[in-house]
Amino acid sequence: MADLDVAVAGAGFAGIYAVHAFRSAGLTVRAFEAGSGIGGTWFWNRYPGARCDVESKDYSYSFSPELEQDWSWSERYPAQPEVLRYLNHVADRFGLWPDIQLNTRVTAASWDADQAEWTVTTDDGASVTARFFVSAVGCLSAYQVPSLPGLETFAGPWYHTSRWPADGVDFTGLRVGLIGTGSTGIQVAPEIAAVAEHLYVFQRTANFAVPNRNGATDPAWEAGFKADYRSYRKQAQKSFLGVPIAGTGRPALAEPPAEVQRTLMERWQAGGGMPFLGAYTDVLVDRDANDIVAEFMRDRIRETVADPAVAELLLPRTYPVGAKRLCQSDDYFAMFNRPNVTLVDIRSAPLTSVSARGLRTADAFYELDALVFATGFDAISGALNQIDVRGVGGVPLAGKWSAGPRAYLGVAPAGFPNMFIVTGPGSPSVFSNMVLSIEQHVEWIRDCVLYAGAHGYATVQAKPSAEDAWMAHVTEVAYATLFPLADSWYVGANIPGKPRVFTSYLGGVGPYRARCDAVAAAGYEGFALDRRLAMSSSVHPQAQLILDGMAAAGGPPIWEMTPEQARAVVTANNEHIGPGPDVASVRDVVIPGQAGGIPARVYSPAAGAPGVVVYYHGGGWVVGSVDGWDASVRALAVASGCDVVSVDYRLAPEHVFPAAADDAYDALEWAAGELADGRPVAVAGDSAGGNLAAVTALRARDLDGPALALQLLVYPVTDCDLDRTSYHEYDGAEFIVNRRDMAWYWDHYVPEPAARMNPYASPLRAPDMSGLPPLYLVTAEHDPLRDEGFAYADRMRAARVPVEHRHYGSQIHGFFSFVNLLDDADKAISEAGATIRAVAKG
Ligand code: NA7
Fold first, then answer.
1. Which residue's CA is minimally distant from atom 16 of ligand 1?
2. Strand ranges for 538-641 from DSSP E
């Protein structure tokens, strides 16, 4: 048994939410964080001027409506200290600290195929085992310092912006050299220039930057988006970048040039990179359109920078605008008008070495007291490659990625079972609002982990073919744009020797989410799911006692009995069950059915019950009765708080298919029409009764009958195929029901084999599952009917019917009815009841 369900590397935005999401889903989780505090990027990048370039209303968690209402951002674009405060507030508010281990760097993670678990090792020498390993190490966390000869001889201090001293740096009166003019360099430069004696900016590539127009939060603006934050977030999820941007929807090349200039100026004045670049549809795909925007931006530099020679050097010309991360700054270009700032062009005269007193370029020497590197990161794969991750057969992840990082859907690398990467290579990640993409990935991973658990799968791994196809798609989409034309960290061009591969998905956040959802709905298409080492291999001791008692009682198997004998045995067995709990009223009724009166019993737990449940008992359509199921139905009435109608439908072989199904449907019509009085109605049943409930839901849809709020199916019979794996696994005599028993039941209920294909006998064969009520499914591991339950849930998901599936890993067929005898029966009934109650109350 693994120590944890999920081990998470990193506690930035991704790791923090992973802890919350997994824990809320009932999983055990621990996040390991190298820093002495949480926050990841926002913990480490505390250089002066560090600020987010996505608006605060977007760059914040959406998972908690209360959190997003309660928290107020002080600025449109939040500065690093405020983002860090926010993340600490989230950890406090949701009590996440006990599951976050600070000052602990994950150094290795290796897959143990025998145990189907990961061993995660940390730099304190400790290790834990976990069923799943989730990387939340971030896309931009492995910082890079260029290897400059002589750096170690430099007499003054030097800093990388991503490892800035917590108590700050005082540059007053110093001559400072800044290397790097990406987003970071552009943010830090004006802050240094404001205090230093002199700032030398060493520029290799001139960069585009749009103004932020940052400012204090306008209360009216805040009230505006908070008034309808939920629908705003929904729009964001469907948008291209994870931020709803109102573009013109038109190509720039189709617009009169003056109109294009007017639109660009309007957006320039409003500030912000995403709305500016998103103004026209062709800017990132058509070089001519791009040139128009680039020239517009060069004009702004020309009119800002006083010295034409300096302005000329600052004009970006070597790549399409947007193809490198678009920078944002209100004061970077104007800074070059200060007398204490010098721009040094290290493209024409590269840096050659460092000495004790300063920096040497190919044509000059600059005396410096301090050096600042804003030289970026080994992006996307760098941080994960610093961990020794080993998958199947001990293959290192870094080896798999030697030609470039890859993962199916950008979240699951093939060959690394039960491992997921939040915002991994091949996902929109850095091309989107990261917080939104992080939430989407974490939730998707959580759902996948839960799906595996509910289905008894021990391992989930991307198929290499699915990964190949996905990465080919990622590449194809990228090459339809201008992005690959730039030497950027997006393609790894900033790291000497790194393979040039475009590893982010440019198909858009909304379409990407839809694709991920479709994969999940289809039962995790493209993943291999394996049941090895699945659930507990042993039957729960309480259930074993029941099985032992039955074995001790002796007697022939069901399939050798007559229906009368079988009914007598089941009646006798049922006497060991119960009694069920008291309910306020129990009355017997006769429901008028098409074929005559249908006896039924109505259990009302209390006055004012919020809904009605129509319940069909199990017993293979041949045995079973309202009396025999009295205890469990009472318990369900109490747990759900709803009126429950237990239906004494006609049994086979006296009444063959579709008699029972007809009675079941008539009972629903009666309950909906006569009893419910507008209250929500659900159908429910166990085993063959689960079959009748599923069939009743199908018929209600097909016949435009009563609307159903839920179908509760407990280890239902959904198909006449007795060849599923679980039928073979539990074909012995020692369980409640086996393959031959089921064949006997089918022979009595639907004697004509061809008729069993009818979806109203085998609902799994219904050609269309859409439009059915939400499914709450209960299955047991040690049950021949196990796999047809799973199959039914899979079809529902594929048809986008909401499914909640509870799988009881040590339980047997029939356990739901054994109230008072099995703790799991009480648990399963109270869980199902709580869901019915919640649905009934709307
Ligand atoms: P970036 O965007 O990778 O910028 C790094 C800068 O450092 C860039 O100007 C580089 O020039 C320069 N650089 C890198 N290596 C060298 C060497 N060896 N010599 C001289 N100059 C060098 O990193 P940032 O930290 O600014 O931003 C990263 C992301 O964080 C940003 O995009 C946002 O998403 C947040 P180059 O352009 O390669 O010629």
1. 375
2. 585-593, 596-604, 612-616
